[in-house]
Design goal:
The structure holds 2 protein chains of 2 kinds. Chain A is an alpha+beta fold. Chain A is 30% helix and 25% strand. The mean pLDDT of chain A is 94. Chain B has a 7-stranded mixed β-sheet, with helices on both faces. A two-stranded antiparallel sheet of chain B has the order 2-4. In chain B, α1 packs antiparallel against α2, α3 packs antiparallel against α4 and α5 crosses α10. The chains are: A alpha+beta, B alpha+beta. Chains A and B meet through α7, α10, α12, α13 and β19 of A and α5, β1, β3, β4 and β5 of B.
C-alpha cells in the first residue's frame, strides 16, 4: 500500500517528518518499505499484514497515525444531492450467488461528462502509482484508495435489460475484461451479469463491453461485498490479481460499502456533473458482525509482563474506534465491554484487544531481563543418532550435502529400498519437473556427485541426512506416509569402501553392544549393479530381522540418469531403526592384563563359501578366548589349490582374562576351529 | 726387569699419537674409524695399551714425566676418535635428513553443511535455556498444518497454489508438505502437558520461485515455551539471551507488531547485528485458540512461540549472497565451513 502524505493530511495533520511518521507506523505494525518523492508529494510504501484490510485505504492509515500521535481524525461525510428519478426504477439487482456476494448496491448517475480529472486528483493517483484514466474511473479508484472499498462504474447504456444479476459463472463461459483479454470462467468464480451476459468478474475486473467511455453519459456505480474465496478463485485461477481483488480477499469494512458509494457519487457529481438518482438499488444485506469484547482489568499486564494505566488503555481503544459499552465505565474495576468498529473484524477476543493496546503503546516497554529458570534437557535419541552417524562420515572425509526432497521422475525411476510401489507426487512441482517425493536419497547424491565432477571440484564424496517418503495407504499404517530417516552417502571407492563406512557408523552407534545382530546378504536392486550390492539386516530379540541398510556399486542406469561419468558406490542407512542403540548404558569390560597369542590359520574351501559362514564357524568354535579374528588374505590358484577352491588366511588373536595362555591351550583352540570349519563349510587346513 | 729408556718411550709415544690422529682424521667411513679405534685404543691389544705396559719399565725418576706424556697422548687420541665419530654421525644424519617443508600426508576433512552447523548452534544455545529439540513428520494433514494453528479453510495460506499438496486423493483431508515446523509443536502439545520448552526444526516447503533470497525448500527453527504465568517479557528475555549467545556481546532485541494466525499478540523480532536492526524471525504469545485446540486451558497456562529462518541467519553469518548456493552441493562451497 502506497500512501500519499499530501492526501493523508486531509484526515490528520501529523507534525512529524516523513521518516519519523514511517518509523512510528513501523513500530505499530505497518512495515515501512520505502519513501519516495513524487513531484511535490511524498509516497510512503508500507506493508499491510493480511489481518488489516482497514489500512488498505488512506483513512485507515490516518486513523493509526492519529492514535499514535494523539491527534484528531477528520473523515468526510458525503451527502450528494439526489434527483427525482429513482435508481430502483432504472435497474433491478438480483443475487443468485449469496455465498460469493452477500450484498450488492447500485447507484445511477445520468448526464455525466466524462473527461480528464483535475490536477489534484491526477497528482494524488500518480503519487500512489495509479495512472489517470478519466474523471469517473479515477474517482472509483480514488475512493477505493481512500477507504479500502473497491468500486466499479459501468456504462449504463451498455448494460442490457436493466438488470444486474450476480451469479456463478457457467463452466467455460467466456468473459472479455477491461484489459481486452478473453478468459474462460469456471463455476467457482462469480460474475456480474446483465440480462444477457457477464459484464464483470465480481470483485476482480470489469468487462470491456460496459466500461466507461468518453461518450458515456449514464453510469451505474457498483459498491458490493464479495466473499474472499470466490474472488481468490478468479484472481488466482486466471492470474488476474487487481487492487480490487487484493482488498476483497482480505475483507473491506462492511460499513464502507454505503459510504464509498455516496463518496464516489458526490465526487463524480462534483467532477463530471450529472444527476444522481434517488436511493440505491440493492440485493442481500451487508454481512459483518461487530464483536463486543470484555477486557478484564490487569489482563494486559498478564500478557505483556508490564502494566499499562487503565486510562491509557481506554484512550488507545477509543482512538482506534472501539466503543466502551459497559455501564461501569473506566475505573470501575469491572471488565470493560468494548464494541469493535466495523472496520476491525479481526478483533473479536480479549487477546486481540490486548494486542491493540500493546502495539500502539509500543513493545519497547516489555522488560527484557527476566530470569529464566533452569530445566534439565536431554538430547533425544534421534538427534544423538543423527549426530553420531554424521560424525563418522565427516571423520571419513565426506561433505554434507542438502539435496531436494522432491525430485524429477528421471531420478525416481527406480523404487527405493524402503518400499512404496510408486513415488508420491506433489502439486505444484518444487522446481521445474521435480514433482515426486523421493523414496531414497541415493539418486540425488549421485547427481550431486556428478555436478562436482563436472565442476572440477576436489572430490565428490558426499553424504546427507534426510527423510524419504513412502506411501503407506495400501498398508494401513498409522500415518498415510511413512518417513524413514536416512543417512546416505556416495563415494568414488568401490563396494568395500562403502561397506566400511556403513560398518563404522553401526559401530559408532553401538548397535552390536545394544544387542543388535547384523547380517549382510546379497541384494538385487535397480539402484545397484548386479552382484555388487548387499543389504544389511538387523535382528533384535524375537522380532523378525529387518533391513537397516543397503550398500552397493551403482547401476549404469542410475549413473546415466544422474549424469555421472565413471563409477561410484554408496549406501543408505535407516537411522530411525537404529535409535535404540544410542541410549544404552555403556559398561566397561576391563582389558585383560595377560598377553595375547596369535595364530594364523590357512583354510581351503570351495570358492562359493561366503566369508560370513567361515567367520561364524570360527567364532562359535573358538569360544570366549577369541579376542579377534582378522581376515588376512583370500586367494585362488587352480594349480596349487585345485579348481573352484580358495585359500582363506585368518589370524586368530586369543587371550584370557584370567591367565597367560599356554601354547597348548592356543593350539587346542586352533584345532577346534579347523575341525568346526571342516564340518560347517568343508574347509581343509593348508599347511 | 729391563729398563726402558725415557727418550725412546717418548719417541714411541709421539709416533703413536701422530699415527692415530692422522689415521682418524682421514678415516673415510665408520668402519675405518672403528678399525683405528681398535688399533690405537683397543682394550686388549691396542697400541696405547702396549705402551702403557712399557710405562712400568721406566726408571723411577723418569716415571712422572713418562706418565704425564702418556696421559697427554691418550687424551689426544681419544679426542681425535671423538671428532672422527662425530664426523661420521653427522654424515649419516645429513644423508637421512628430510625436507621438513614438504607437505604432510593428506587427511581429507569432511564438513557439516553450514545450514546444519547453524541449526546445531541454535539448538545448543536453546538447550542451555532448557529447550529440548523435537522432530516430526514433513508430510502433514490439514489439522496440524492449518486448523490447530488457527488457520481456517478460507485462509489464503491454504490455497493450493501456495502449498505443495500431495496428488493422492485422501477425501476431505488432503496431505501436504508442511509449510512450517509449528506442526511439530502441535503434535508435542497434543502428547504432553505443560510445562513445555521445545524447539522444532527441519525442512519446510513453500512454492516460492527460487531466487537469491527464496527457495521452495528451506529450514526453520521454532521455539515453544508453555508454562503458567508466561508473558511477553519471558519471550523478550529468552530471545535476548539467545541473541547475545548467538551473536556475542550484550545484544538487544526489538519487537515490531506483526500478524501470524497462531500467535496473538504477534511480533517481528529484530536483533542488533553489525550496528543495525536485522529481522531475525517472527514470534508471539501462543494464541488461546491454539492452546484450546490441543486441550490446554488458556486461563491456566500461557506460552510464547518464535520462529527463525535458518537460511537467512546462515546467509548473513557466512556472507552467502544467494541462498541457492546452499543447495548446489558444490564441494568447493561446502569445504569452506
Amino acid at each position: 500500500m502506497i500512501i500519499s502524505l499530501d492526501w493523508l493530511a486531509d484526515y490528520v495533520q501529523v507534525p512529524a517528518t516523513p521518516d519519523a511518521l514511517a518509523e512510528r507506523l513501523l513500530m505499530a505494525g505497518l512495515n515501512h518499505e520505502s519513501t519516495a518523492r513524487v513531484g511535490a508529494d511524498t509516497a510512503l510504501e508500507i506493508e499491510v499484514t493480511s489481518n488489516r484490510p482497514d489500512c488498505l485505504g488512506h483513512i485507515g492509515v490516518a486513523r493509526e497515525a492519529a492514535v499514535l500521535f494523539g491527534l484528531p481524525l477528520h473523515v468526510p461525510d458525503p451527502r450528494p444531492p439526489e434527483g427525482a428519478e429513482k435508481a430502483t426504477e432504472s435497474v433491478a439487482v438480483e443475487i443468485h450467488a449469496a455465498d460469493a456476494c452477500p450484498f450488492y448496491s447500485a447507484r445511477v448517475i445520468r448526464g455525466v461528462r466524462v473527461g480528464p480529472s483535475p490536477k489534484w486528483l491526477v497528482d494524488r493517483l500518480a503519487t500512489v502509482g495509479v495512472e489517470s484514466v478519466n474523471n469517473v474511473v479515477d474517482v472509483t479508484n480514488y475512493v477505493m484508495l481512500e477507504c479500502g472499498q473497491p468500486l466499479h462504474a459501468f456504462d449504463l447504456a451498455s448494460l442490457r435489460g436493466g438488470r444486474i444479476v450476480v451469479r456463478h459463472a457457467a463452466d467455460g463461459e467466456p468473459f472479455t475484461a477491461i484489459n481486452h483479454k478473453t478468459y474462460s470462467l469456471t463455476p467457482r468464480m462469480c460474475v456480474i451479469a446483465d440480462a444477457e451476459r457477464p459484464v464483470a468478474l465480481a470483485g476482480v475486473m470489469g468487462g470491456a463491453d460496459t466500461e466507461i467511455r468518453p461518450a458515456t453519459t449514464d453510469l451505474l456505480l457498483e459498491s458490493a461485498q464479495f466473499a474472499p474465496l470466490a474472488v481468490r478463485a478468479a484472481a488466482r485461477g486466471l492470474v488476474l490479481a487487481s487492487a480490487s481483488s487484493y482488498r476483497f480477499e482480505r475483507g473491506p469494512d462492511p460499513a464502507a460499502v454505503e459510504w464509498a458509494s455516496l463518496r464516489a457519487a458526490a465526487l463524480i457529481l462534483e467532477l463530471a456533473g450529472g444527476t444522481l438518482e434517488q436511493g440505491v438499488a440493492t440485493a442481500g444485506s451487508p454481512a459483518g458482525t461487530q464483536a463486543t469484547i470484555a477486557l478484564r482489568p490487569g489482563r494486559v499486564a498478564e500478557v505483556l509482563g508490564v502494566a499499562i494505566p487503565a486510562a491509557r488503555e481506554h484512550a488507545i481503544l477509543a482512538g482506534l474506534g472501539f466503543v466502551d459499552t459497559s455501564r461501569g465505565g473506566e475505573g470501575s474495576g469491572e471488565p470493560a465491554a468494548w464494541r469493535a468498529p466495523t472496520w476491525r473484524r479481526d478483533v473479536t477476543r480479549e487477546i486481540d484487544l490486548v494486542e491493540e493496546i500493546a502495539r500502539i503503546e509500543g513493545y519497547g516497554r516489555v522488560p527484557e531481563n527476566l530470569p529464566i529458570t533452569a530445566r534439565p534437557v536431554e538430547r533425544p535419541a534421534r538427534e544423538e543418532t543423527v549426530r553420531a552417524a554424521s560424525g563418522v562420515l565427516v571423520g571419513a572425509g565426506f561433505c554434507e550435502a542438502l539435496t531436494r526432497s522432491v525430485v524429477s521422475g528421471r531420478l525416481e525411476a527406480a523404487a527405493g529400498p524402503w518400499g512404496g510401489a510408486t513415488a508420491l507426487e506433489v502439486r505444484p512441482a518444487l522446481v521445474r519437473g521435480a514433482d515426486r517425493l523421493r523414496r531414497t536419497l541415493l539418486p540425488s547424491l549421485v547427481e550431486a556427485r556428478a555436478g562436482n565432477v563436472a565442476a572440477g571440484a576436489p572430490h565428490g564424496e558426499l553424504f546427507e541426512v534426510a527423510r524419504a517418503y513412502v506411501g503407506n495407504a495400501d498398508r494401513g499404517g498409522d500415518s498415510p506416509v511413512e518417513e524413514p530417516l536416512l543417512v546416505a552417502f556416495v563415494t568414488g571407492g568401490g563396494f568395500f569402501a562403502a561397506k566400511g563406512c556403513v560398518e563404522a557408523v553401526l559401530e559408532r552407534l553401538g548397535v552390536a553392544g545394544a544387542g543388535g545382530q547384523t547380517t549382510c546378504r546379497p541384494l538385487d536392486h535397480e539402484l545397484f549393479a548386479r552382484g555388487r550390492a548387499a543389504e544389511v539386516l538387523l535382528a533384535r530379540g524375537p522380532a523378525a530381522a529387518e533391513r537397516i541398510a543397503v550398500i552397493g556399486e551403482f547401476s549404469s542406469a542410475l549413473l546415466a540418469a544422474a549424469g555421472l561419468d565413471g563409477t561410484a558406490a554408496g549406501a543408505e542407512i535407516r537411522l530411525d531403526r537404529l535409535e535404540f542403540a544410542v541410549g544404552r548404558d555403556r559398561k566397561l569390560h576391563r582389558p585383560s592384563d595377560f598377553p595375547a597369542v596369535e595364530r594364523d590359520v590357512n583354510l581351503v574351501v570351495a570358492d562359493t563359501v561366503p566369508w560370513a559362514d567361515i567367520a561364524a564357524a570360527i567364532r562359535t568354535a573358538a569360544g570366549p578366548l577369541l579376542e579377534h579374528c582378522r581376515l588376512v588374505q583370500v586367494w585362488q590358484d587352480a594349480e596349487r589349490l585345485g579348481a573352484g577352491r580358495k585359500s582363506v588366511v585368518v589370524t586368530l588373536r586369543l587371550r584370557s582374562d584370567s591367565g597367560t595362555l599356554s601354547g597348548d591351550e592356543a593350539n587346542r583352540v586352533v584345532q577346534a576351529v579347523v575341525e568346526a570349519c571342516g564340518r560347517a563349510v568343508g574347509a581343509t587346513l593348508r599347511s | 726387569m729391563s729398563t726402558v729408556a725415557l727418550d725412546s718411550f717418548l719417541a714411541e709415544l709421539d709416533r703413536l699419537k701422530a699415527d692415530a690422529v692422522g689415521t682418524l682424521a682421514t678415516a673415510g667411513d665408520a668402519d675405518a674409524v672403528e678399525r683405528a679405534r681398535v688399533e690405537f685404543l683397543g682394550a686388549k691389544s691396542g697400541r696405547l695399551k702396549a705402551l702403557q705396559k712399557l710405562l712400568g719399565g721406566l726408571a723411577g725418576p723418569d716415571k712422572p714425566a713418562g706418565g704425564k706424556h702418556f696421559n697427554e697422548a691418550k687424551q689426544a687420541v681419544a679426542a681425535a676418535l671423538e671428532a672422527a665419530q662425530a664426523r661420521m654421525t653427522g654424515a649419516v644424519a645429513a644423508a637421512e635428513a628430510i625436507d621438513v617443508t614438504l607437505p604432510g600426508e593428506a587427511v581429507r576433512l569432511g564438513h557439516l553443511h553450514p545450514i546444519t552447523q547453524t541449526i546445531r548452534r541454535v539448538q545448543e544455545i536453546m538447550g542451555r535455556l532448557g529447550f529440548e529439540s523435537v522432530d516430526g513428520p514433513e508430510v502433514e494433514d490439514q489439522w496440524h498444518n492449518f486448523e490447530a494453528l488457527a488457520i481456517p479453510p478460507e485462509h489464503p495460506a491454504r490455497d493450493p497454489l501456495d502449498n505443495f499438496y500431495l496428488a493422492v486423493a485422501r477425501g476431505a483431508d488432503p496431505l501436504l508438505l508442511r509449510s512450517q515446523t509449528s506442526t511439530v509443536q502441535i503434535r508435542v502439545m497434543e502428547a504432553r502437558k505443560p510445562p513445555l520448552r521445545i524447539v522444532s526444526l527441519g525442512r519446510v516447503y513453500r512454492p516460492d520461485t527460487a531466487d537469491a533470497t527464496h527457495y521452495p525448500m528451506f529450514h526453520q527453527v521454532e521455539g515453544l515455551y508453555v508454562e503458567p504465568g508466561t508473558t511477553m517479557a519471558h519471550l523478550k528475555s529468552v530471545l535476548r539471551l539467545f541473541a547475545s549467545s548467538f551473536l556475542g556481546g550484550d545484544v538487544h532485541v526489538r519487537f515490531r507488531p506483526s500478524f501470524f494466525p497462531f500467535t496473538e499478540p504477534s511480533v517481528e523480532v529484530d536483533m542488533e547485528w553489525g550496528g543495525r536492526w536485522v529481522e531475525m524471525g517472527g514470534a508471539g504469545m501462543v494464541d488461546p485458540a491454539v492452546l484450546r485446540a490441543v486441550g490446554y486451558d488458556p486461563d491456566e497456562v500461557s506460552g510464547f512461540a518464535f520462529g527463525l529462518g535458518v537460511e537467512r541467519i546462515a546467509a548473513r553469518r557466512y556472507g552467502v549472497a544467494d541462498i541457492r548456493d546452499f543447495y548446489r552441493n558444490d564441494v568447493r562451497f561446502l569445504e569452506q565451513f
